[in-house]
Each structure stands twice: as C-alpha cells, then as structure tokens.
Amino acid sequence: MSRRRRDLVFGLAVIVLFSLPLLPEIIGTRRLVFRDAQVTHWPWRRVAVDSLRSGEVPFINATASGGEPLLANPNAVLLYPSLLLETVLQPATAFNLHYLLHILWAFFGARRLARMLRLAEGPAFLAGVVFAFSGMMLSYGSAFMNSVAAAAWLPWCAAAALGVSRARNIRDILRAAAATGIALGLQLLAGEPALSLLTLLFSGGLAIADVLAAPRAERQGSIFAFFLGGAAAGLLALAIAAPLLLPLRAVFPLTYRGQHLYSERGFGAAAFLPWRALEWLLPRLGGDPGVLGGGANWLRSASSEDLVYIWCVTFGVVPLLAILLAALRRPFWNSRSGSLMAGALVTLLFSVGFALPLYRLLFAVGFLRRLRYPIKFYLLTTLCVALLAGLAAESLGRRRAGRREVIAMAALVTVFAAIWILAAPGSLLDRSAEPIVRGIANDPAAFLATFRGLVRGDAAIGALTVLLVALLLRARGLFPELGYALGFLTLLFSFGWGLPLFVSAPDKDLARPPALLREVHGPGRLYVSPKLPRFETRALQPAGGLLRFAKVSRVLVEQLVSATGAPFGARYILEGDPDGSYGFYNRLVGEAATASAPAERDRLLILFGARWVLAEEGEDHPLFRSVTGLEVAGRRLMLFEIPHPVPELRWAGRAFRRSSLSGTLELLRSERFDPYRDVALPGKVNADPSEPFAAARVSGDRVTADSAIASIEAAGPGFLVFSRTFFPAWRARLDGQDVRTLIANARDLAVAVPAGHHRVELAYERAPFRRGIAIQAAAFFVALAAATLGKGKALRQKPQVHKQLEIDVGTASVERYDAPRVIDRESREDREHPAEWP
After folding, report:
1. Spatial contact of 140 and 123, defined as CB atoms under 8 Å apart
2. Which terminus of the chain has fewer Cβ atoms in its 10 Å neighbourhood, N or C?
3. pLDDT tens-digit map of 657-673
4. Are 817 and 193 in contact (CB under 8 A)?
5. Greatest Cα-to-Cα distance within the chain, rounded to the nearest angstrom
6. What are phi and psi of 315, to 5 degrees?
7. At what angle do helices 482-498 and 135-143 cross, to 10 degrees?
8. What pLDDT, on a 0 to 100 scale, did the predictor assign at position 675?
C-alpha cells in the first residue's frame, strides 16, 4: 500500500472509531452540556444566530446584564468558520460538531507536525493520536468552544512555521508564510489569546532550532527565510483576525480580567498540582464528569474545593511506556528527543503556576495579567510528549526488547498490581476516603464503590496495556509498523476514560421551555440569586446509583441559571460568571449587590432594570413582592416582582457627582437616590444636585440591543440614561452632532441634554468591524496570490548531492530522492535518518 493511501486509510479509521460512540451527539439527539458548553457557549450562540437571522450583526448581547459585548467577546467564537455549520445543520448538531471536529483536526495537525520533524508515517500516526486523544485535548473538546479550536490549531501552526524556516526561495517563503498566517489567524479567531501566545512560543522555538541546525553554508538563507516569512505570517494572521481584534480594542481595557484582586486569583488559578501526575497511570482518578462528585479528583476537590479547569491530564499509558522503554537505550537520545524532553519539563514546571517562582515574572506584565490558568502550559507539555512517543516508536521499531525493557515492564506491572490491592474493599483507599465520602454523598457506599471501581479498573487496564505492548515488541515480525499498532492501542484505551468526558443530555429535554418562563415576560430583566442552582440530590439520584449530570443540566434550565434562559427569551441582570459578565463596571456592580444588605441590594437591582428576582425560599427581597413559587429538584423557589421596572431609556433630571466608584455605589444603594429620575456621574469632588429636578418627556423612537434613538422635550438641562454597560465603543449624537458618552451610575451610559426639544442617538460603533472585514478579505486575497506564485529565485545554491534510485518492492514504483536515505530493511520502507535535528 502506498504511503498516501495508507495515511488516508488509517486517518479514516480514526475518524470512524471516534465517531461511532458519539453518533447521538453527531446527529443532534444529544447536546454537550458540561460546564461552559451549557451555561455560556450554547446560549451565546443561540442569541447570535437569532440576531443574524433577523439581519443584525450581534455586536451586543441584549439578554446579558447591561447588554454585554458579544461579537467582540473572544469566548463567544462568533467570527470563526464553524459558525457556518449553523446555516446547514440543526443547532445541536452544529454545536456538537464544532467540538468533535477539532479533536480530529488536532490529530491530523499533530501527525503533520511529526512528519515535518521527519518521523516516519507510523510514528507520526502515534504522535497524532497521543495529542488529539490526550486528557487535555478531550477536556477542552468537551466543554470549551474557544479553547478546543485554538488547541487544535497549535500543531498546524508549528508545522507551518517549520515550512517557513526551510524555504529556499522567495516563492516558497511566501507560500509557507501564507500557510502559517492562515493557521495562526484562524487560531486567533478562535478566541483563546493565552493559547495563541503559547503557540507563538512553541512554533518560534521549533523554527529557531531548525535554523540553527542548518548547515553553515545554508544558515544565512535560513535566517533570512525565518525573519521574512515570520514577519509576513504575523501580519497576515493579524489581518485575518482583524474583524475580532479591531472591535476588541474598545472592549479589552474594560474587561473584568486583569482588574483588582481577580487578576492574581485568576492568573494562578487551576494550576497543575503535582499529585495529578497520578492520572498519568490512572486516567479515571478524576472520576466521571457525567456523575456528580467533584472535580479533578472526587475526594480531593470535595475536601479542598480546588478549582478544576482541565478535568483529565493523562497522556495515556501506552505513549508513556513507549517513551520509558525507548529512553533506556542510548540511540534514542539525540538533539530531537533531548529538545522535546526539555520542552516537556519546562512547560510542565510553568503549568504549576505560582508554585514556580519564575511564574510571578509573567504576572508582572500587565497584558499577561488578563490571561488565566497556568495549566494551559500543559498543552505544550502534551504536544512534546506526543512527539516523544513518536520518536520512541521509531526507536523501538529498530530493535528488539532486551533485559532492560523486560525489567521496566515487569516493574510497571508490579505497580499496577499494588494499586489494585490498595484499592480493594476495606483496604487503605477505603479507610482514607470514607470520612470524606460521608460528607459529600447521600449514598457513601455507592459513591465509594464507584470510585474504587474506577481506580481498580485503571490498574487492570494499565497492566493489560503493558502486556499488550510487550507482545507487540516480542512479535515485531507480525507488527512491522509498530507506530500504527501503538497508535490504535492508544486510541482504543483512551475511549474508556475519554468518552465519558463528553457529557451530554437529550436535546429535546433541554429545548423544552422552563416552567417559570410564562411568568417572566414583558419589559424588565431577571435577577437569579447567586446561590442557585440548588437541588436535593435525593430527589434526582436513582436507587442504587449516583446522580448523573444530564439530570442536573435540566435543573439549570428550570432554575433559569444564567444564561441558560437566554435562548428562550429571558433577559438577565448582573450574572456572576466572569465570561458571561464581561464588563468590568458590570461585574463590579454585581459584586456590590452580592455584598449588600437585602434592601440595599434590591435598590441596586431596581436601578439597573430588574423586574423579577428568582431565589430560594427564605431569601429576603423586601422591595419586591412574591408572585409565585415552585419546587425544582427538591428545592422550593420563589419568584419576586416589582410592577414597574426602571425603563432601559429614561430621563434623569438630577445629577449627583462622586469622585470614586465605591462612593458612587454607596450612593446608589442608599434611600437618597431615586433610580427613576436621578443619575450619578464621575466628578473631581463629591457633589449633590443644587438645582431642582428638571422634568422632561422622552419618547423612545427605537431601542435595540446596540442602539437607541430618543426624542426629548426638556424643561431644563438633564441627562438621557441608557441601560447598557459602558464601553468606549458606544457613540452618542445630539441633534446630529457628536457628543461625549458618560459613565452613569457606575455602569450605564448617559448623554447630557440641554433644555428644549432634542434628538439623541446612541449606537455601538460598527466601523472597526467593517474595517476588519475589509482587511480580512484583502488578507485572504494576498494569501491566495502567494499560493499561486510562480517559481522563485533560490536564496542560495543547493549543495550537490548524489541522486539515487530506490525501488519500493511492495508497490513496484520508482521514487527519486534528492538527499541520501537509509532503508529500514525490516519494514521495507524508506526513512529519514533519525539522528538529524529537523
């Protein structure tokens, strides 16, 4: 079988094997619901698609508190090509496929990168499988729409960057730069800036190593290609991402990330903890995310409340065993393996966050403080391990296992046997876990049995894995393509712990409108208590088993937890999620409301347009009246209402001035401030209104998510207040003249209006997006032109090499090579010499 046909067949095999168990998600009968997939990505996408179908660009999410930026929110992933799936597929299918297709894209990208590093087809196949079906990639692919797309582009960007450093004429440089720019530009559109920075770091490191490894006579040309191609690729990537980056400029300085105490907590949160290395051998130590019970480790997270961002961090036992066995022999160690091993160790150290002293240097950079989660460095660790596994397969394929390998495998089997014994009923694991389980589970026996079963199951699977690898090495004649065999073994064993990460629920159940929705309609917004969701597990838990998350996902909808009600028309106020509440001012007001006494909290809610409050029975809301109550999942909820909410567009005839945000918030929640007719504005000194209230008649000619037009007849000077979160992108015009947009009430927009008849227009600025679209179109035209360039002039003369003919006996075809090759006589396949760094 020819190389191309073999690549195609085995690639299709991976697609089929991965797709078969996920057919319900692919055809849309079930929808991914784990974490961000349900509470942010699905609602935002539905709001955006509805806006597009009505002919409007979704600049603002009107269902979010204060009307939060949507198009310019990178987490919304609205400018990425996968949005086009919504035009041809049903919503659940289009949504799920965004996640699942990127797992496969990561496989092909890592395989391509391995080939660029001159690994043979089999080892490259193994590298692709290890990366795509690692714990980190599958954790991204089950919950985080932006992260999985950005992570999948990482190996493609690195492979394209190597193409730039190896170009030998202007045509090849520009074509390689075009490929790199497109890959990096699409990754930027995916909306994960931290992963894009890590991609630049990794790709640049590979390319520089490639340049330094070039023969001295060729090094000057390689350096020229690196800088010229790198600069061209960077400009092209920025141009492709311009529709996101240009609108983001007005949003980024006022996002919540990087502001006050949140920055250090968020920047160092969810680090890789050393004990999680146990998951390398026991992938299901974290439990099943489809079953309620905690985070990365059921017992650890339940007892210490760890914030878990990446559910599983395993690489798989097969690749780790292959690396271990190959590393026992000197031929494995060369510039390639040494560099990749160093990269894996360094990035692993950075993934532990502030536990590494050097990590605080990153926090000292203002721009970087807006990024989160040091465990993102672990993605580079994963890619390095995947490539090392490919190198290990190549090394093991050239020799038989000896005494060292047998001793190492026997030792690992012994470790798994010891784990099996320690996890037996009534053993050390039970005695250690039982006190914790009593405090976190209604059925401690079932919980402990499940946890014990997962640990023992992983130990048994681990021992079986070692034995199968030993069989492959022993019967190498039956499996000449060791890389392919190890790759399929890795893939099949990953299903046991990887498929449960794709937590889903029936789409028809989630698409059913919540019962409370019939009470929540008309003007005004909904405030959902931060104490929700609340539920009694006894009311949901099946007899003799543990509670599945699929049931809880419906509870989130019934309790209208932000922003699950947005697809049904619910409009929220002051969400608690840092992504759902993207504006700094809006988030600050929400924190003030949470920290306030009941009456003060209600005054803030009323000021910002709340009409309804949904809370657990017993929560005090003195300024609202109770409307109805209902029981959801064993908890009694109450819906409160005020009959006349503050309008989104209103007149303020009295103005208070405050010199600080804290002083403004103190005023807003006091009885002195009238939310229906007062406004609080920034000032150099604190000042109360000295003039009497100036009445006015306001008629809203048009109020949309991203604009408002009002006619005003005012008896005296005052302010038109618009309930939208302040960002510099908001523009105001008074009688056709540009005027200043003010920050009102510590969050909203205001325009000063003199006495008399006036027309005020407020609109979110569209020009940056339009410029971005034009720049992106030009960038794709340039990339297309670069791809069709004719033959260019060489940067240097190629060294003279002896040309030889080799005949592939299996296919009876003749191939011509321009560089010396060595033949692997046992596999009858030509291979690059493995001792050369790229």
Report:
1. no
2. N
3. 999 999 999 999 999 99
4. no
5. 98
6. -100, -15
7. 50
8. 95
